[in-house]
Amino acid sequence: MIDREAIHDNTPLLNTLLLDLHFVVARMVRMENTRANTDSSTKSSANSTSTSSPSSETSETRVGVSRRWVWCGAVLLVAGAIAYWNRSPAAVEESNQKLEFNFSANGAANGRLAGNDATASPTGENPGAATLIKGGITDLLNEHPIESAAHPLDPLLLIAQRGLEQLRGSLRDYTATLERQERVNEQLLPAETITLKIRQALTAEQNAGEAVARGIYTRHEAPASLQGQEAIYVEGENDGNIVAHTTGVLNLRRFYLPPTGFLAMRGSRYPMTEAGFEVLIQRMLERGQRDRDFGPCEVRADRQALVNGRSCTMFEIVHPKPEGPYDFHIARIAIDDQLNLPIHYESFTWPKEPGGRPELLERYTYTNIQINPGLPAETFSPDNPAYAYPKR
Q1: Mean pLDDT score, 98-127
Q2: How do the domains of the chain map onto residue ranges?
Q3: Residue 3 confidence (pLDDT) above 80
Q4: Please, are residues 183 and 212 in contact by the beta-carbon 8 Å criterion?
Q5: What is the rounded CA–CA span in Å between residue 99 and residue 316?
Q6: Which whole number is the average pLDDT over 301-326?
Q7: Residue 284: is it exposed, middle or buried by C-beta count within 10 angstroms (0-12/13-18/19+)?
Q8: What is the pLDDT of residues 167-224, one digit of tens each?
Q9: To which CATH superfamily is domain 91-392 assigned?
């Protein structure tokens, strides 16, 4: 009996079905081949003592081939029927995260369109906001305020570059809980909660003469249809593939999936290899520089924002019109003032109708962050006894 609550969202269900279907079909084909080989051996033995009808052998072969395809077709039909029967309406925007920010608290001069100097003071200082000293990378705003920058993205790009340098100089590994919700192929998917463990790549010079490959481990905690699914990626191992497994009674084998392949990418905007803070900052820099080079935008900052109770500086970037290379209407980035890491990112598309509400494009929030816990090598091995990987 199918638990419709456990597989209420169509895309994660299809992920599991496709993986399980791949295994079932492959096993059926192997069984048929084994049976055919056995029949062939039996016939050869029989032919040594008696003569068989050629037409009879051909008929039996055809029956075997037909039976194989009938079984495969039946499995495909059942999988498709289950996916169709348990399909659900589009997901709604949802989040368990508590965000508190108020851009107007820092004064009207906090944001402007590039080239508009009407709100800047003669000295280039922000007259509506007091200087805040926090001791982190966002203190660069004190020396490089948004309103006096050549382009309002310049201070954020400077902060992102400084953050990337610090990360690469001091961060070895970390664990976190990631809540994400994404729009894929124009469909907003349900929110997901993922346990994340990441090991940074280290050169021999950085690690006492021994190079360390970048490693990523993920385990889905929610929704229920994905709970318990695990995936591991280690750069340079497993022929560049992700090692994953499904859950339930069909958790019979490990799957080796190309990170950018169809199965690994279903239900995701980005491949698993792009998980983590370093890639997030890199994408911020790439998109920010691209948008800066194209033209104007609006940038605001709240230096007293809170994300799940943690002190942050929240930036908001607004592209008024969908033009050029812009891929979002509004984006918000929260940088943790203690960790110097972006712990929240969300972006929205332009409204479909004038005066309408922008639609969520993607949202990522990191909580329960532990920096440099010293993850052992077995953290990134599917043979780890703490994981639920099958033996093969």
Answers
A1: 51
A2: 10-85, 91-392
A3: no
A4: no
A5: 13
A6: 96
A7: buried
A8: 999 999 999 999 999 999 999 999 999 999 999 998 888 888 889 999 999 999 999 9
A9: Lipoprotein localisation LolA/LolB/LppX (2.50.20.10)
The amino acid occupying position 47 is N
Q: Cα separations (Å) of 103 from 19, 314, 333, 356?
A: 46, 8, 13, 21
Please state the pTM of the whole predicted model: 0.75
Q: pLDDT confidence of 135, banded at 50, 70, 90?
A: confident
Q: Give the model's pLDDT for residue 106.
A: 57
Residue 65 has which token pair?
Answer: 């081939």
The conformational region for residue 196 under phi > 0 = left, psi -120 to 50 = alpha, else beta, is: beta
Report the amino acid identity of residue 211. A
Residue 252, SS3? coil
CB 99 within 8 A of CB 305: yes
| Coil vs helix vs strand at 213 | coil
Yes or no: say if 299 and 156 are a contact pair by the CB < 8 Å rule: yes
Question: Dihedral sign, CA of 166, 302, 286, 145?
Answer: negative
